[in-house]
Design goal:
Its EC number is 1.3.5.1. One of its GO terms (molecular function) is 2 iron, 2 sulfur cluster binding. It is an enzyme of class 1 (oxidoreductase). Pfam families: Fer2_3, Fer4_10. Pathway: Carbohydrate metabolism; tricarboxylic acid cycle. It contains nine helices and seven strands, in the order αββαβββββααααααα. With 254 residues, it is α+β, with helices and mostly antiparallel strands. It has two domains: 107 residues, Roll (Ubiquitin-like (UB roll)); 116 residues, Fumarate Reductase Iron-sulfur Protein, Chain B, domain 2 (Orthogonal Bundle), CATH 1.10.1060. The strands form two sheets. Strands 2-1-5-3-4 form a five-stranded mixed sheet, with helices on one face. α6 runs antiparallel to α7. It is elongated, with a radius of gyration of 22 Å. The N terminus is likely disordered.
Length: 254
Amino acid sequence: MTALAESTTSARAEVGAVPSFDVTLRIRRFDPDNGAEPRWEEFTVTAHGTDRVLDAMHKVKWEVDGSLTFRRSCAHGICGSDAMRINGRNRLACKALLKDLDPSKPITIEPIKGLPVIKDLVVDMEPFFASYREVMPFLITHGNAPSKERLQSPEDRARYDDTTKCILCAACTSSCPVFWTDGQYFGPAAIVNAHRFIFDSRDEGAVQRLEILNDKEGVWRCRTTFNCTEACPRGIEVTKAIQEVKRAMITRAF
């Protein structure tokens, strides 16, 4: 037997040694084509503790009910497309391990709040991205194009490093009570992405962004509940970033 074959056999043995169990997913379903109200539906599948919620949902879709609809892409916490409410908290389904959710009880899964539901767990992200576009999430400079790259010190880069981690999953924005009740509020994600450029030493559009966020539906609508920080799958200090934007407005005003 070759070394590769031995390795493969060993890996399969290790996988086989992991005990399996039945887990029940209680999923919020909605089909706009049948005109019915949203409903809860339960599915029981066999899984392992090291499986993720996304793995269990794949088993439901591939083996039980192919009509179950949800977004996912990379399945590694990078694309942010599979954000949903799992046991009442916003999470990425690809990062939530079944063993961390007490699989002995039904795991509830529903779409993120504050955005129109298109079908099952898929929501309309356009209002979210509209706010994102409005804060001009790109480098703004004036004058002629430079003849060489714009250099930046490690200290200047570190100033906004945290907010560069955003993957636009909407977990923070859709966990905000203000966003749930006020569809005009920019939301945490838009402010985080504005922060990323406001504090970039190479950017010259900070004043414009601060004027946009100084609107009545901008940063002053934040109630500092920390829901956004707790929901962020990337560990961004969202509430801190919002406070820094508020402070920048006051500082520049005086």
